[in-house]
Amino acid sequence: MRKQPRQILLGGASTMMLFAFFYTGTAFLSSYGTNPEGLAHSRPTILTLGIIGALVFAVGTIASAILSDRVGRRAVIVASCIVAVPWSLVLFPILDIGTAWSFGLGLSGTLLIVAGIYGPVGAFLPELFATRYRYTGAGMAYNLGALVGGGITPLVAASIIATAGSASIGLLLAGVSLVSLLATFGLPETKGVNLETVAEAEARVPVRS
Description:
By secondary structure, the chain is mainly alpha-helical. It has a single domain (5-202), classed as MFS general substrate transporter like domains (Growth Hormone, Chain: A, Up-down Bundle), CATH 1.20.1250. The protein is 80% helix and 0% strand. The protein has helices spanning 5-14, 16-34, 43-71, 73-95, 100-127, 134-164, 167-185, 195-203. Helix 2 packs antiparallel against helix 3, helix 2 packs antiparallel against helix 7 (167-185) and helix 3 packs antiparallel against helix 4. The longest helix has 31 residues, at 134-164.
């Protein structure tokens, strides 16, 4: 934390949208879809649409990882955050159409945006940090994003939907997406960083006792 606090904080903020969308899509929407006071879909319908969404997520993750090797990790994450902002605002109007098809579209679209970050983030975060504390730095950033984006956001969503309506959750997700977008803009592109060269350079630096 003392060595690269900026990378930890911005790296964590850049992943907030990933976790907010993931847990909204997998946990919150499953409950919202089957709740008699929500969309009131049958549980088998939601499970089937969840399987389809998982397949979309898997394909999207592979595609975004390959794309990040070509155009850059940061570029793919930025693009995903940009798409996430308007999608957040239309997600619940789509879901509230009330059909199984609209729920499947909302769920699959949400998980596809998650995949856009999930593919490159495994390379992006470690490449932000110096070799000697790369694992620690990446782990702290990743878990910071998980704590705020995945822990707090779904809890807030569950508490505000009853009082402010489903549209308020879209505004919440859009706000989280903007935070992640700005944080990612504050980080460098890491594609092409030669980690072996960095490791060799650090090995030549004498360690002070």
